[in-house]
């Protein structure tokens, strides 16, 4: 099913439909200590999430629709919220024009609550 969705998205992108793709790497450090290393690639509406390394052993993802600079403050609700173990990956179909929040600390990243004080502001894809 995911292959069919990806194929349809690819064909639509050939005729000019913009699915809002990109590659985003989150490499959070505190001094010399690595806290989180995650990579997300969105292409033709399909997101490939990789939790490469995390000090907690987990990467926590919150995906919002793109609508304003701070999704939680604008009252936007997450499209998806999930956790990956360090070293795991996951594909998620149906993504286009999103904000992404990633953290190693807990199931609800700080930026999901509207706080960007620790440098975890949502990324736009």
Summarize the structure.
The protein is built from one helix and eight strands, in the order αββββββββ.
Describe what this molecule looks like in 3D.
The structure is a single chain. This protein is mainly beta. The chain has a single domain, classed as Immunoglobulin-like (Sandwich), CATH 2.60.40. It contains 1 helix and 8 strands. The chain is globular. About 13% of the residues have low confidence.
Count of discrete structural domains: 1
Largest sheet descriptor: 4 strands, antiparallel
Question: Which fold name fills CATH's third level, the topology?
Answer: Immunoglobulin-like
Q: Helical segment tally?
A: 1
What does the overall shape look like?
globular
| N-C termini distance | 23 Å
Helix content percent band: 10-25%
**Rg, please?**
15 Å
CATH class: Mainly Beta
- Report strand %: 35-45%
SSE ordering: HEEEEEEEE
Mean pLDDT: 74
Briefly note the structural class of the backbone: mainly beta
